[in-house]
Specification:
The complex is a heterodimer of chains A (430) and B (431).
Chain A (H helix, E strand, L loop, with lengths): L5 H8 L2 H29 L9 H9 L2 E7 L6 H9 L7 E7 L5 H10 L5 E5 L5 H11 L4 E5 L3 E3 L3 H5 L8 E10 L6 H23 L10 E5 H6 L9 H11 L3 E12 L5 H22 L13 H32 L2 H28 L4 H7 L6 H23 L10 H9 L2
Parallel strand pairs in A: 1-2, 1-4, 2-3, 6-8
Antiparallel strand pairs in A: 4-7, 5-8, 6-7
Helix pairs in contact in A: 1-13, 2-8, 2-12, 2-13, 8-13, 11-15, 12-13, 12-15
Chain B lengths: L13 E6 L12 E3 L8 E4 L5 H11 L6 E3 L10 E2 L3 H16 L3 H4 L4 H12 L6 E2 L7 E2 L9 H11 L2 E10 L9 E6 L8 E9 L4 E4 H4 E2 L2 E3 L6 E2 L6 E10 L5 E2 L3 E6 L5 E2 L6 E9 L1 H9 L10 H20 L3 E8 L2 H7 L1 H18 L5 E4 L3 E7 L3 H18 L6 E6 L1 H11 L1
Parallel strand pairs in B: 1-2, 1-3, 3-4, 4-5
Antiparallel strand pairs in B: 6-7, 8-19, 9-17, 10-11, 10-15, 12-13, 13-14, 15-16, 17-18, 20-22, 20-23, 21-22
Classes of the chains: A alpha/beta (430), B alpha+beta (431).
Chain lengths: 430, 431
C-alpha cells in the first residue's frame, strides 16, 4: 500500500543529482519544449493584434473565395455547416459541395440547397472515390483566388473566413489554417479530454509553431490555400493524411503556412474511446508514413531543395515526438528495474508535476484564446486532474502502437479512409 | 364511283349539300338528294380537301351547329364526323347522325345555347365526348364530337356539375401560365442562365495520384493522360474510373451535377421553371341518363336531381333548415377562405393547387359525416348541422390546426360563420 504523501516526502528528500537521474525524461525531453514555447506564446499574446491597413484590406476584399466541401454520408451535418457559412462577414464567391458516393441522401440534400441558391456547384460521385479525389475535383473546378477546404461536419464563427484569409496579405503565404474547437465537449469523458487537448494544442502549440514558421498541417477541415500554390504542387495526394502531405509539399516549394489563431471552427470529436483510438492511430500512422517514408529525404543535406528549417522541423518531431514515444516505455521499465515498487512513487511524483504543468498550460491557453465560455471551462476542468494520464500515458501508448503497425505492416496503406481499389493502386503500385 | 352503298336504303329523303361540288362520276346512295346552297340540308358532304376558312364560311352560311359533316376524302379536322374511312362509312355516318337528330325536340334541335348544342351533339354522334391528342390544337387536346363549339372543356365541366355528363380521367397536361398554351418545350438547361446550350462531361478519377477532374482534362493524343502526374491511364477499374459526370453550360460556364429542367412556351416564348407550370386535367365525358332525358325532353327533369355535386350540399342545407324550423336544431355554415392564397399561388402555382387539394382532403377527414363541404372559387363552404356557433368555431379551430400540421405552407386559414341571407347571396353568386 502506498502512502498518499510518500511521493511528496520522497521528492523533498532528493538532491539535484538524484532528481535528474530519476526525472531526466521529463526534464530533458518534455519540460523545456512545452514550458519555453508556452512562455513565449503567452508573452506574445500581449502584443497588439495587427490589423490590415486600408490597402491590405482592399487587396483582401478583391480576392475571390471558393469554398470546397467534400463529404461521404454527411447528410445530417450539411444544414448546420451551410447556416454558419451563410452568416460569414466575408463574402464567399462560390461554394462547391462534392458528395463522395453517399448512401444517406446527401446527394439530394446538396441539390436541394443548390436550388435554394445556398450552394453554387453540387456534384456527386456515383461511387466513393475518397476524400482526396473528391476535394481535387472541387479544387480543379474552383475559380476563386483562395480555395478554402472545409468539412461538412464543422461549423464556423461568423468571422472565421474573414480572419482565415488575412495572412494572405503576405504574397509568400500559400496556405492558412485556423483554430479548431470541440463542440461536443460535454458528451463524454473522452470528448472532455479532447477538448482540453485541443485548447492547449491550439492555444499554445500551434501559436508557438506559427511564431517559428513551423506550421506543417493546414487542416483539411479548416484550411485555405492560394489557388496558384496548390496547383503548383499538384493538389491533394491520395489519403489518408492528405492535408499534412499537401502542407509539407507547399513548404518544400517555399510557400509559408500561417496559423490564423482568431479564426475559429468547431467540430465534434470522437465520443467513444474506441473511436478516438481509431482516429489517433490513423493520424499517427499517416504522420509516420509521410514524414519518414515520403519525405525522408528532408534529412539529406545534398538534396536539390534543401531547407534547414524543414530539416530542423523534421528533427524536432523525430526527437520530441518519435523518440519520446519510443523512450517512454523504456523509461518506465528502467524505473521499475532500478527502484522496484518505489518506481510508483516516482511516477506519481511525475504525474503531480504534470498536473501542475497541465493546469498552468490550460489556464494560459484559455487566457490567450479568450474564446471558450465559462460553462465549457467548468465542464472540462475536473478532467484536468487525470489529463496527464490521458495525454502522457494513454495517448502515448496509442501512438506507440500506431508507429509499430505502420513501421512493420504499412497499415496506413490499408486504411478504410480511402476505398480499397483506390488505396491499393495509390500505395502499392508505383 | 360509290362502292357498296346498295346494302341500305333511306326511308325519308335527306338533303345534302356537296362542297365544293359533286363530281360527275360520283354517285350517292338512294334516299339522299343533292340540294343547292341556301336550302335546308341534313348533311354536308365534303368532296375534296377544303381549307379551314372555306369550311367555316360554309358552316356559317348553313347556320346549323348540329348538321353532320362527312368527307369523302381523308380529313381529321375538328367537326368532321367521318373522313378517310371510305365513302360508304361517310354516308352511313351522316345518316345515323341525322336519324338521331330527328329524335330531338325542337327546343333542343334549334337551341342556340352552347350547353344544349353540346348535349345534342354528344347524343346525336352517339360516342361520348372523347378527347384526342392533337398537336395542331393549342391545348394539345380537342373534342372532335364538339364540332366548332368554343370552350368545350368548360362547357362539359358545367354539364358534369349539373349531372348531365359523367367525366372520367383522360390526361393531365402542362400549360403555359402566361398564355395557357400547351405547346411547351421541355428541355434540359443551365441552372444559372437557363440556356439550353449545355454539355455533359464524364468525371475521371486517377487512383494513383487522386486526381479527379472532367474527362476533357485527361484527353491526350488518342488516349488518357493524367494532367497532374503525366502517367498514362490505360485500364479502367485498375488505373482509373469514372465516378460521375458534370454538366457544363457553354454560355456562362456554370457547372453542375445535373441539368435543370425548364419549360419554354412555343407560342408566346415565355420561359418557366417546372414549379411555375400549372397542369391541366382533361376528361372524357359520357351522357348520363339525366342528360339523355334532358336532351330528349327539351327541359330539365324536375323529378331527378340534376346538379349532383351542388345538390348534396343544397339538399343537406334544405334538410337542416327544415330540421331547424320543426325542431329548433341549430346549424352553422362557415365560409373558409385563405389569406395567403394569392402569395403562395404567385410563388408556386402547383404548390397552391396541391395545398388546396390537401385542404379539401383534410376537411373531409376532420369533419363529421353529417357535415357537408362545398368548394367555391375563394375557398370552401362548410355546413355543420345540429351545431351551435361556439362548437362550430371550436371545430374549425381544430381543423385549422390540423391543416397547419399537414401543409408545408401556411395558407392563412380564415373562417366566418355566415347567416341565411349572406348564404343565399353567396350561393346565387357562385351558382
Amino acid at each position: 500500500m502506498i502512502e498518499l504523501d510518500a511521493p511528496l516526502v520522497m521528492l523533498g528528500q532528493f538532491d539535484w543529482a538524484t532528481w535528474f537521474s530519476m526525472f531526466w525524461f521529463m526534464v530533458l525531453l518534455e519540460v523545456p519544449r512545452y514550458t519555453l514555447s508556452a512562455i513565449s506564446v503567452f508573452a506574445a499574446s500581449f502584443a497588439r493584434p495587427t490589423v490590415p491597413t486600408p490597402a491590405e484590406q482592399r487587396y483582401l476584399d478583391g480576392l475571390k473565395l471558393s469554398v470546397v466541401i467534400a463529404g461521404h454520408n454527411e447528410a445530417d451535418a450539411i444544414e448546420r455547416c451551410l447556416r454558419s457559412l451563410g452568416e460569414q462577414t466575408r463574402r464567399i464567391d462560390e461554394i462547391i459541395f462534392i458528395d463522395d458516393g453517399s448512401t444517406d441522401g446527401m446527394r439530394e440534400i446538396i441539390h436541394k440547397y443548390r436550388l435554394l441558391g445556398q450552394i453554387d456547384i453540387a456534384l456527386s460521385n456515383q461511387v466513393r472515390s475518397g476524400k482526396s479525389a473528391s476535394c481535387n475535383l472541387g479544387f480543379s473546378l474552383a475559380r476563386g483566388d483562395i480555395i478554402i477546404n472545409l468539412d461538412a461536419d464543422c461549423s464556423y464563427d461568423c468571422d472565421a473566413i474573414e480572419r482565415l484569409i488575412e495572412p494572405f496579405i503576405d504574397p509568400r503565404v500559400g496556405a492558412t489554417t485556423g483554430s479548431i474547437g470541440v463542440r461536443n465537449y460535454d458528451y463524454s469523458a473522452v470528448t472532455a479530454y479532447q477538448a482540453i487537448e485541443y485548447i492547449v494544442s491550439i492555444g499554445m502549440g500551434k501559436r508557438a509553431l506559427d511564431m517559428l514558421d513551423m506550421v506543417v498541417c493546414a487542416s483539411g477541415a479548416f484550411g485555405a490555400f492560394r489557388r496558384g500554390a496548390i496547383h503548383q504542387v499538384g493538389l491533394l495526394a491520395p489519403g489518408p493524411g492528405e492535408d499534412f502531405d499537401l502542407t509539407l509539399r507547399l513548404r518544400r516549394c517555399g510557400w509559408k503556412i500561417r496559423f490564423a489563431a482568431n479564426s475559429w471552427c468547431f467540430t465534434d470529436t470522437p465520443a467513444t474511446l474506441a473511436a478516438l483510438v481509431r482516429q489517433r492511430r490513423r493520424w499517427d500512422r499517416d504522420t509516420l508514413r509521410t514524414r519518414l517514408r515520403k519525405f525522408r529525404d528532408t534529412f539529406h543535406a545534398r538534396r536539390r531543395r534543401f531547407a534547414l528549417l524543414e530539416t530542423f522541423e523534421q528533427c524536432e518531431w523525430l526527437v520530441m515526438n518519435g523518440l519520446v514515444t519510443l523512450v517512454f516505455p523504456i523509461y518506465v521499465a528502467w524505473l521499475f528495474l532500478c527502484f522496484g515498487v518505489g518506481a510508483l512513487n516516482i511516477l506519481i511524483a511525475v504525474a503531480l508535476v504534470y498536473l501542475v504543468l497541465d493546469a498552468i498550460g490550460f489556464l494560459m491557453a484559455l487566457a490567450i484564446c479568450r474564446r471558450y465560455s465559462a460553462a465549457m471551462v467548468w465542464a472540462v476542468a475536473p478532467y484536468l486532474l487525470t489529463f496527464g494520464l490521458y495525454n502522457g500515458v494513454f495517448m502515448r501508448c496509442v501512438r506507440l502502437h500506431a508507429y509499430g503497425e505502420e513501421w512493420i505492416y504499412r497499415a496506413s496503406s490499408r486504411d478504410s479512409y480511402s476505398p480499397s481499389r483506390v488505396s491499393h493502386q495509390a500505395h502499392w503500385k508505383r | 364511283m360509290l362502292m357498296g352503298v346498295d346494302g341500305f336504303a333511306l326511308t325519308p329523303t335527306a338533303n345534302f349539300l356537296a362542297y365544293p361540288k359533286l363530281h360527275d362520276e360520283c354517285r350517292f346512295p338512294p334516299g339522299w338528294q343533292l340540294v343547292a346552297r341556301g336550302e335546308m340540308i341534313d348533311a354536308l358532304v365534303l368532296t375534296a380537301a377544303v381549307p379551314d376558312n372555306a369550311l367555316r364560311t360554309i358552316l356559317a352560311h348553313i347556320g346549323d351547329p348540329l348538321v353532320p359533316i362527312v368527307s369523302l376524302v381523308p380529313d381529321e379536322r375538328q367537326g368532321i364526323d367521318a373522313g378517310g374511312q371510305g365513302e360508304q362509312f361517310a354516308w352511313e355516318r351522316a345518316y345515323a347522325i341525322q336519324a338521331k337528330l330527328r329524335e330531338l325536340p325542337g327546343s333542343i334541335r334549334h337551341s342556340a345555347e352552347p350547353e344544349d348544342i353540346l348535349l345534342a351533339r354528344v347524343y346525336s354522334r352517339d360516342q361520348g365526348l372523347v378527347p384526342i391528342l392533337d398537336s395542331g390544337a393549342r391545348d394539345l387536346v380537342r373534342y372532335p364530337v364538339a364540332g366548332m363549339l368554343d370552350n368545350v372543356s368548360e362547357l362539359a365541366a358545367g354539364l358534369d356539375h349539373k349531372g348531365y355528363l359523367r367525366r372520367r380521367f383522360f390526361d393531365r397536361l402542362f400549360c403555359c401560365p402566361q398564355c395557357r398554351s400547351a405547346h411547351l418545350s421541355v428541355r434540359e438547361e443551365c441552372h444559372s442562365c437557363r440556356s439550353a446550350n449545355i454539355t455533359e462531361e464524364v468525371v475521371v478519377h486517377h487512383f494513383q495520384c487522386a486526381h479527379e477532374a472532367p474527362e476533357s482534362q485527361f484527353r491526350s493524343h488518342g488516349g488518357f493522360t493524367c494532367p497532374k502526374c503525366a502517367r498514362p491511364l490505360r485500364h479502367i477499374g485498375l488505373d482509373y474510373d469514372k465516378p460521375g459526370s458534370i454538366t457544363r453550360c457553354l454560355e456562362c460556364g456554370s457547372i453542375n451535377d445535373k441539368p435543370a429542367v425548364g419549360f419554354k412556351c412555343i407560342d408566346c416564348g415565355a420561359h418557366h421553371a417546372p414549379d411555375q407550370v400549372p397542369a391541366r386535367t382533361w376528361y372524357a365525358y359520357s351522357l348520363t341518363a339525366v342528360g339523355q332525358r334532358r336532351v330528349l325532353r327539351g327541359a330539365a327533369d324536375e323529378s331527378v336531381p340534376a346538379q349532383a355535386g351542388f345538390d348534396r350540399f343544397q339538399l343537406l342545407l334544405e334538410h337542416t333548415r327544415k330540421e331547424q324550423r320543426e325542431f329548433g336544431s341549430p346549424y352553422q355554415v362557415a365560409n373558409v377562405t385563405f389569406a395567403n392564397r394569392s402569395v403562395i399561388a404567385a410563388q408556386d402555382l402547383r404548390l397552391w393547387e396541391q395545398s388546396q387539394q390537401l385542404v379539401g382532403d383534410t376537411l373531409h377527414s376532420a369533419l363529421r359525416e353529417v357535415d357537408a363541404v362545398r368548394e367555391h372559387a375563394e375557398g370552401f363552404l362548410i355546413l355543420m348541422p345540429r351545431t351551435g356557433p361556439h362548437d362550430a368555431a371550436r371545430a374549425l379551430q381544430l381543423v385549422a390546426a390540423r391543416i397547419r400540421g399537414v401543409l408545408k405552407v401556411d395558407p392563412g386559414f380564415r373562417f366566418t360563420l355566415v347567416d341565411d341571407v349572406a348564404l343565399e347571396g353567396f350561393c346565387s353568386r357562385q351558382g
